[in-house]
Specification:
alpha/beta; Rossmann fold; flat; 3 helices; 3 strands; 35% helix
Length: 96
Amino acid sequence: MTPMRVLIADDHLFYREGLRVMLGAVPEIQLVGEATTGDEAIERALALQPDVVLMDLKMPGASGIEATRRIVRESPRRCTRLPFKGCTAGRRGARD
């Protein structure tokens, strides 16, 4: 089985470290990169073509919302958007 390739985009070191540890414990997931700004997230997502980008909404440079829009628009792969920290999540609209 091919592992799911994940990019973490968050400006908070502790969030990235926590996600890195959690994701590292799952053999079906491969962490392919990290970004600390919205602009860096765009650059890395387009270069690395991950299956999933875990995107923070409030980051320096381009916001997570703008970064997600650009990644979806410019990526040659079909993208599915899933909300991350600070935004509505889940089918029933649970909030952080």
